[in-house]
Amino acid sequence: MESAGYYTNCKKTDGICEGICDGEHGSKAVLSMSRLKCALRGFDLKALLFLLIGVPIIIFVIYVHGQKVTYFLRPIWEKPPKPFTVLPHYYHENASMANLCKLHGWKVREAPRRVFDAVLFSNELDILDIRWHELSPYVSEFVLLESNSTFTGLEKKLHFKENRQKFEFAESRLTYGMIGGRFVKGENPFVEESYQRVALDQLLKIAGITDDDLLIMSDVDEIPSGHTINLLRWCDDTPEILHLQLKNYLYSFQFMLDDKSWRASVHRYRAGKTRYAHYRQTDDLLADSGWHCSFCFRYINDFVFKMKAYSHVDRIRFSYFLNPKRIQHVICQGADLFDMLPEEYTFQEIIAKLGPIPSTYSAVHLPAYLLEKVDQYRYLLPGNCMRESG
């Protein structure tokens, strides 16, 4: 059919848009609307709904839970580190030191080595008090360095300096140092942390450490048991570097996560060789050597401060993580402050640790000073999860 120079072919139809050709004398606007209607009628409605609703939901879920997905898939893209050589640990209060050294394959010394306990301090006053009382009978010199800056570059008070009178029992054996922060914006927090650990090396020299003295390298909340340090200072032929396996607690001694804390270490000091660090430095690990009580604070404000101050500040993905009511709820549940999955290397271990940490009601074999000062430190014992807001 041909009309006024135009050729229209309506022989082929699909049963959906055949009406478009009926109005051959219709306006271009009508024909355009008809063609649009045809296109929409041919479009799959389910696909349209998926694009408009499903895709935004998927994007939102990835934004909220993407880190969990990454952690859950960790066994696929990351292999576990080389296992430690775990050394058996023998102890009883009635066993002689000669027999204890012999059980470990070591010889007993005629006199104990000197022991230096060196820490970087932030704001963990209660845990430091418990730590120093636990180690006091065996430590020759306490070495403490604090900064007016957090690892993340936030300004902070010199909490130890302001509360130094609380630690008068250690004053005669204390080497204290203060280092000014660099306050570099946007810098990786581990750079500032490394900077402070190098300064601690210098403070140890000021404290008078010499070759073959024992040096404890651990964070304040990684507390070696006193009898472990006593064993190492009395025995000869011990490894020059020895990591300590600590029971891993969260928020208090009610929630024991596992016994996989290993970063604490004891070194036989070597001038020019020994460097203060907080990473793996040997394959030797002494079993059951103390306690790691992470985020064990009295005040909710201290939880908020540490969450913003320590090197893993990137874990605060949402501002509501810092809400005091949420933090209190998380503490009593034994859940994760950052809503993260367990940091494990096998699916079996990840699945086994999903959910809150089960409570333990045992307060056996904890630091003695904690139990002696139970009225002061009750919040760290099982059954006392409520925290103060100050």
UniProtKB/TrEMBL annotation:
GO terms for biological process: N-acetylglucosamine metabolic process. One of its GO terms (cellular component) is membrane. Coiled coil: none annotated. The keyword Membrane applies. InterPro entries: Glyco_trans_17 (IPR006813). GO terms for molecular function: beta-1,4-mannosylglycoprotein 4-beta-N-acetylglucosaminyltransferase activity; glycosyltransferase activity. The chain crosses the membrane at residues 43-64. Keywords: Membrane, Transmembrane, Transmembrane helix. This is Beta-1,4-mannosyl-glycoprotein 4-beta-N-acetylglucosaminyltransferase. It comes from Triticum aestivum (Wheat). The lineage of its organism: Eukaryota, Viridiplantae, Streptophyta, Embryophyta, Tracheophyta.
